Amino acid sequence: MKRLLLHVCCGPCSTEVIRRLREEYEVVPCFYNPNIFPRQEYERRMAEAEKYAAEHGMHFVFGDYDHDGWLEAVRGLEGEPEGGKRCAACFAHRLKASARKAREEGAELFTTTLTISPHKNAAAVNAAGEEAGRDAGVAFVAADFKKKDGFLKSCSAAREAHMYRQDYCGCEFSLAARKAARK
Fold first, then answer.
1. For 2-182, which CATH class?
2. pTM of the predicted structure, to 2 decimals
3. Is the pLDDT of residue 167 over 90?
4. What are 23-26's contacts with CB under 8 Å, separation 24+?
């Protein structure tokens, strides 16, 4: 089996994606999400993803929590709506780092769980992944994991595993928008 690094945004989203990918690949989950704010939320999401990987006998890797570097990557886009240019810059930032990590880990391929979310544009995510892969010399596996009820299956698997599931994308801008919508 070819080795594939899977950029994991959170444990719940990884469940169905890992199940599907393990049919064809040796999957190495990688948690690189410096967009997540605050740090406590980042650590909680990483712990869930790491626990799930360990329960399934998988080697788990992660990148540094460089929130300042991420803020620099999205500078000037803070006011963009969810799903806009800020998100595209965020995808590009995280997938570039994931592609480099795939190369370091000896993975021939990489992909991401991001497309399982009904809130993420799979074409935009896949375009960012393909560019990151070209730059790093690692092939990106384009997918839309929300198809075939992927998101619903991931929610069900997360409930069965008693996983923590967040209620916002991760960055302080999506958190502020969520709080404003609740008022």
1. alpha beta
2. 0.97
3. no
4. 25/1, 25/109, 26/1, 26/2
